[in-house]
Design goal:
This protein is α+β, with helices and mostly antiparallel strands. It has one domain (4-181): q2cbj1_9rhob like domain (Jelly Rolls), CATH 2.60.120. The chain is built from four helices and twelve strands. The two termini are 16 Å apart.
């Protein structure tokens, strides 16, 4: 991975504390739980855990910053922005997600490490084979942002076998997948076909085709 941005102490303390203290379901050591929360540029909301008022507060407080980061990393994508995701994601202590690229409709991918104090962060690579492995280390309230670029944005994550891993996944998104593919010179129809197959490959065989 080439272009990314790391920001320490990204969230205000009040937001950090509220997110860490939200009541969540218990999960198994090898499982993942995603609480989906989204808000668009017209303030339309779809939330499963974060309250509407907190979601609006997060959007108003941080979206200008994330939009600026997108402008630095991939200015050609700014015009495609439609909505923001604030997903709260908890993974079990033994859970791992294999080397992959994010979907093209994610204009800006972000993660803010919430809890615990120590765990494994995000691993980035030169390619899908896992060469030149580097870790974006886990530090509470540290944000890691990147804008995917085809075959240059490989990454993975996993637990430390000791504690569950809680993070805020913060993405700037577009509904215009076709245009997002065009910007990255991706064959749109090939991508649609792979997108139908890959969830099954990941679930049953722990790999994807790119």
């Amino acid at each position: 991975m080439q272009n990314f941005k790391v920001i320490k102490n990204f969230l205000k303390k009040e937001h950090f504390d509220k997110l860490c203290n939200l009541k969540r379901e218990k999960i198994k050591p090898n499982s993942i739980k995603v609480y989906h929360n989204k808000i668009d540029k017209f303030n339309n909301i779809n939330s499963t855990l974060i309250s509407n008022s907190l979601l609006v507060d997060l959007y108003k407080t941080y979206n200008k910053t994330s939009y600026k980061i997108l402008g630095e990393l991939a200015p050609q994508k700014i015009k495609l922005y439609d909505y923001t995701e604030f997903h709260l994601v908890e993974t079990g202590k033994n859970y791992s997600f294999p080397i992959h690229q994010d979907i093209p409709s994610k204009l800006l991918s972000g993660v803010i490490y919430l809890y615990p104090e120590k765990n494994k962060g995000t691993f980035i690579y030169k390619n899908k084979r896992g060469e030149n492995k580097e870790e974006i280390e886990w530090v509470q309230n540290k944000a890691f942002f990147f804008s995917r670029s085809e075959n240059l944005s490989w990454h993975s994550y996993e637990g430390d076998k000791i504690s569950n891993r809680l993070a805020l996944v913060y993405n700037l998104m577009t509904y215009d997948l076709k245009k997002a593919c065009e910007i990255e010179n991706i064959n749109y129809y090939k991508y649609l076909a792979l997108n139908k197959i890959n969830p099954y490959l990941l679930k049953y065989f722990k790999f994807t085709i790119n």
